[in-house]
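Homework help board

Subject: predicted structure for assignment chain

Our instructor gave us this sequence and asked us to write out the predicted structure in token form, then describe one feature. I got the tokens but I'm not sure how to describe them. Can anyone check?
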Amino acid sequence: MKSKCVIIAGEFSADVIGVEIMSAINNIEWYGIGGPLMDSKKLNKFYDWDKISAFGLSDVIFSLPRLYYYASKIADKIIKINPKIIVTVDTKGFNFYLIKLIRHKLKTNNNIPKFIHIVAPTVWAWRANRADKVSKIVDTLLCLFPREPYYFDKNKIEALFIGHPAVQKFSSQHKKSSLLSKLKIKDNGQIVISLLPGSRKKEVQYILPILISVSKLLSKKIRKPILFLCQVAPNQEKLVDQILKKMPNDIKIVHKNLLGNELTSSSDYAIITSGTATLEYALNGIPSIALYKTNFISSFIGRRLIDMDKIILPNWILGKKYMDFIFQEKCNPEYISEKMIQLIKDKNKPNELLVYAKKLRDLLTANDRTFKENIKNVIEAKLNV
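My token output:
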């Protein structure tokens, strides 16, 4: 008989991790919230994930009534299922509130599920006091980065480094010629630049128009032919298509589910919205620029709460500036294109980054096992308690 477990993932990066978790173990019937990847593994879905998603600090504030409403509904559904384990992936604000709500509703019940949270709060970048609060919410915290358990161990929480799922997707086998062949594009020695506008609606709305303008400037300033490939998250295909149609461009859309990993390792350069994708390209040694732009309120609050030197993952993990980060007012087409031209002109950069890419892969591997093997061991151990 299959065990009933719940998994909650409220955005694309969490969906990527969620599907790895679901595919790691066969004897579990999964319920919860996830995206298209988790749906493909026959997730018994409570609601679509847009019900629990919000972008930026100001958007979260305005979305609170909706988030509170669905948290209560989801908590009731979870209690009715009576799972042995509840796995929450990232989206910490919503997920931690949901866990506290379930604990409150079950306070007179001895049959309380085990709460496992994956993707630790970035206490190393902002609000370090959250480490103590997390220990009162979850039973086990699974960390993707090796330096993270240190911040939680003193708070008597089981914090385990399990490696990062992006490492197992690394491949040195992909070739640019193969990618171009699959895209039915003639190989004429063009530079391949990947453009990643983000996986959230408002990220795409803010950043994609900037990337389109950057592509036009680079095409004018660089003599070699350039192929711009826009990597689109499954949940933002319609929006990306709408924006591209409004602004004339020579950008080709590539769907992440179809060619994501091959596109990453076959690109010559990339311009990336800050997030997990910065790590994926760094693991492959691809010279890249990270950027982020949001509304004024979120930017104003963010500057005062977040350590910007630690916001780009490969920079924080390596303890050095691996990738340039362009934020808010500097996030304009002229400045970004200038930085990209400098990167392209630096002929030593690709070989230098390959060395750091190998170091990153070593640092993000736990117990000489893959992320999937480690997560399988943890969940099976909790089920057998």
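Reply (TA_rk): Your tokens look well-formed. For the description, you could write something like this. The chain has a mean pLDDT of 88. That's the kind of observation they're looking for.
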